[in-house]
Write a structure and sequence with these properties.
6-stranded mixed sheet
Amino acid sequence: MSKSADREVVVAAVQMDVIQGLPARNSAVMAERLSAAAESGARLVVFPECAHNGYVFGGAGEARDAAAPPGHGWMRHLEAACAAHDVWVVAGFLERFDDRLHNSAAVIGPSGLLGIYRKTHLPLLGVDRYVHAGEEIPVFDLPFCRLGVLICYDIRFPEACRTLALKGADVLAVPTNWHQGAESAPEFLTRTRAWENRIWVVACNRVGTERGVRFIGRSQIVSPAGRVLAEAGGNEPETIAAAIVPAEARCKRLVVAPGEFEMDPIGDRRPEIYTV
């Protein structure tokens, strides 16, 4: 377990306008906004889904041409910024790996790439029509928390977030591309997942329009009690931040009145009867 999880730490979400076809521009914006967030005190910074490449592709070949392998130059720029500022980042990108495409998120720290999460649930939408689903839901050990990552559509599956909670995640990072029509995600899904698992949620969306698809912003930081600590607007690039204590996610039992009104959404589960 992370030794400093009981100390206050600042987390941030960088809501940005991603321009398809301009990956160098996108990565430059990411490095600049990461540095600014770190200089303001953030230790963990989350970027949107597919922030490096864009999301709305018209075919598998086009998506493959835009994809980047692990260790690509854009990732090295973020690694340098993390090393310079002693900060960790979760950044979405379209990944080309072992002759397959994945909708992925890189977890990067001062020492370089810590790992990659590959989206495990795929809607029939955008680039997700052309990628392979990931097969693992890992937890990453940071100095100040245990971090889980899900990408966009993944958060609509309670089993995915519950798996991370059972593995001991304190913080859930959610790089996302919420588009017009997906308002249910910031309106109640983020808060529900935070409350039912008693974890911190840092959801980072994008703004702007890509090939006629408008993205709705509203990036959020949510407490284990389901309270929204910070929320971005719906139209403009913006960085939001909040101070959290990761270890608060490790106390799952809610004691309203000792011995009279107590709840434990993890300990009170009955998996032996959850059968179909």
